[in-house]
């Protein structure tokens, strides 16, 4: 029974983390048709900025509860700044180009940002465990579990609902949906497509940065942490269907529980589990579970 409880809790936590990391990637592709390889570097920047900000915070002797407010502010500011700098400084000059070219450009950005992280923060590891330990643990089904991990699950749910509300209920979201359907007609109707792209990319970057920020207290923040993340994020969005927000959520759940079951039942296959799920899904549905039907232009 304890093992079942552990699988359920770990799968839920890992799925929540994967959703936070992957949803920005699928949002950017769905609106802008950009496979953003640099997404992993945004995650790493979030982790490093969080570690630095919390280091200053705790050195100043401020109340521990305020650390979570600092993490939220850091995620928002860093995500918006990095997203707008990359979109306005590089990507806006390449809109309308071949998707393969965009992949190469974002891969180059990933390499540049990875080196920039090393230049700014060096190659030493950063540890900021205090937020992870602050709330302690709670016993669930006889198993002690960190409250911080449960907070990540709650955060993923809140962020997912907020993103859905923005897309479905806000004026900007409805304009974004129109741009996804047909950007040329949307522009002809007076929608500022450039502004939609900039906003979308900034929001997608904020999600990646949030993933890094909430992960920083759980790990040693070291160079190269963005490499594995971008691979996992792509696996999740491919399972769910590129460009689908519900698909990112379902893909994260599939991947999260596949990993949890592998860790507890067959540890030797942990790294293989997520990609096995992806292979099975693609064998049945080559475009993912929730891939949008697209019209063919003649």
From TrEMBL:
<dbReference type="GO" id="GO:0022857">
    <property type="term" value="F:transmembrane transporter activity"/>
</dbReference>
<keyword id="KW-0812">Transmembrane</keyword>
<keyword id="KW-1003">Cell membrane</keyword>
<dbReference type="Pfam" id="PF02653">
    <property type="entry name" value="BPD_transp_2"/>
</dbReference>
<dbReference type="GO" id="GO:0006865">
    <property type="term" value="P:amino acid transport"/>
</dbReference>
<dbReference type="GO" id="GO:0005886">
    <property type="term" value="C:plasma membrane"/>
</dbReference>
<keyword id="KW-0472">Membrane</keyword>
<dbReference type="InterPro" id="IPR052157">
    <property type="entry name" value="BCAA_transport_permease"/>
</dbReference>
<feature type="transmembrane region" description="Helical">
    <location>
        <begin position="66"/>
        <end position="87"/>
    </location>
</feature>
<feature type="transmembrane region" description="Helical">
    <location>
        <begin position="143"/>
        <end position="167"/>
    </location>
</feature>
<feature type="transmembrane region" description="Helical">
    <location>
        <begin position="266"/>
        <end position="284"/>
    </location>
</feature>
<feature type="transmembrane region" description="Helical">
    <location>
        <begin position="42"/>
        <end position="60"/>
    </location>
</feature>
<keyword id="KW-0029">Amino-acid transport</keyword>
<feature type="transmembrane region" description="Helical">
    <location>
        <begin position="99"/>
        <end position="123"/>
    </location>
</feature>
<dbReference type="InterPro" id="IPR001851">
    <property type="entry name" value="ABC_transp_permease"/>
</dbReference>
<feature type="transmembrane region" description="Helical">
    <location>
        <begin position="229"/>
        <end position="254"/>
    </location>
</feature>
<feature type="transmembrane region" description="Helical">
    <location>
        <begin position="14"/>
        <end position="35"/>
    </location>
</feature>
<feature type="transmembrane region" description="Helical">
    <location>
        <begin position="196"/>
        <end position="217"/>
    </location>
</feature>
<protein>
    <submittedName>
        <fullName>High-affinity branched-chain amino acid transport system permease protein LivH</fullName>
    </submittedName>
</protein>
<keyword id="KW-0813">Transport</keyword>
<keyword id="KW-1133">Transmembrane helix</keyword>
<comment type="similarity">
    <text>Belongs to the binding-protein-dependent transport system permease family. LivHM subfamily.</text>
</comment>
